[in-house]
């Protein structure tokens, strides 16, 4: 039984770590400079500049979507870990209560 408990603990730690890691990815995306602001002058005028502008627009839209999805996954992972821990604590209390007949009186 101890092996299962260790495995459960590890899984909770992995889920918590996933939530933290995903939050860090979101922060990194949020901290990125806008490409257009940084490089738009380097392309001058013309077709190359237009293509870069298209790329920047697509990147900004995709980055916003990705950032939102990563944030959602981070929140889900954190909530899942909290829920599993809560269930684990409730089950432990129930087992302790069942083992101690004096508590039921």
Description:
This protein is an all-alpha fold and about 100 residues long. The protein contains three helices and no strands. It has helices at about 1-30, 35-40, 45-100. The protein starts with a helix and ends in a 6-residue tail after the last helix.
Task: Please tag this protein with its features.
105 residues; mainly alpha; 3 helices; 83% helix
In short:
83% of the residues lie in helices and 0% in strands. It is mainly alpha-helical.
Provide the residue-averaged pLDDT. Answer: 85
Span of the ends, CA to CA: 29 Å
Number of strands: 0
Main sheet attributes: strand count, strand direction, barrel closure = none
Helical fraction = over 70%
Supply Rg. 24 Å
- Based on secondary structure, the structural category is mainly alpha
Shape: rod-shaped
